[in-house]
């Protein structure tokens, strides 16, 4: 166990470090409180053996600063010639975890080191478990927010993101565009080519839309079935129309054969809703506007877009 031994007396350093090394421990020696703080950060010990009575900075002040500076708890054992019960209690109250009375008895030192080694081992296991749990939570959060088939954001993430961005647009009085996209004649595609091919098609379209979400606040997601959505914060109507055109072009360039389509290829229709400052409109209302615009786009023959501004409803 790596042990930071803090004592201003050379003789005490030599005796205690000899005991510790004989017990199989690694020892880092500090001759003052200031040096102890420096070496603690540098070596990250498993245990601190800390003399109380030292010039300039005593052990009480050292342990106080250690507790303030270190995010990870490291056990501290005070070393002192003061053996009165109130001295031991005060040392524990100041932040130490145990108390060893000088002159140090090798057997008692060994017993305390074994106990602290068990605590240190449990602390490391706890830290490792916490790290693993944090990683697992990150993975779980990612899985919860992603569509299992396409790998892009799912409907749940869409609802959360649209709510956040709409509130931000309302607060900052910034425009926002919402696009709803639907793959044209996708049921016919599934019936003709099969559901496995349909799943592959959904994946390719999803990834193409995701690549068009260029800014940090932009979000492409699977809205449901063959429907997709794209949220574009701080985007005016011209920007939304430009993005819709880019989507139409990008999906056509995938060149996915669709013999049951009027265009012989997989195409997509896009409905655009736009609000200038997004006041007095809810996420549900904005989505309904995009859905109506999508319906209008399909009515125009598909493979096109239609837009509706909030003010026009």
Automatic annotation (TrEMBL):
One annotated GO biological process: cell adhesion involved in single-species biofilm formation
GO molecular function: diguanylate cyclase activity
CDD domains: GGDEF (cd01949), REC_OmpR (cd17574)
Domain Response regulatory: 2-117
GO cellular component: plasma membrane
Record-linked PROSITE patterns: GGDEF, RESPONSE_REGULATORY
Name of the protein this chain belongs to: diguanylate cyclase
Domain of life: Bacteria
Pfam families given in the database record: GGDEF, Response_reg
Modification 4-aspartylphosphate, positions: 51
Chain ranges of the GGDEF domain: 174-310
Cofactor(s) required, per the database record: Mg(2+)
EC number: 2.7.7.65
Keyword annotations from UniProtKB, A to Z: Phosphoprotein
Catalytic activity: 2 GTP = 3',3'-c-di-GMP + 2 diphosphate
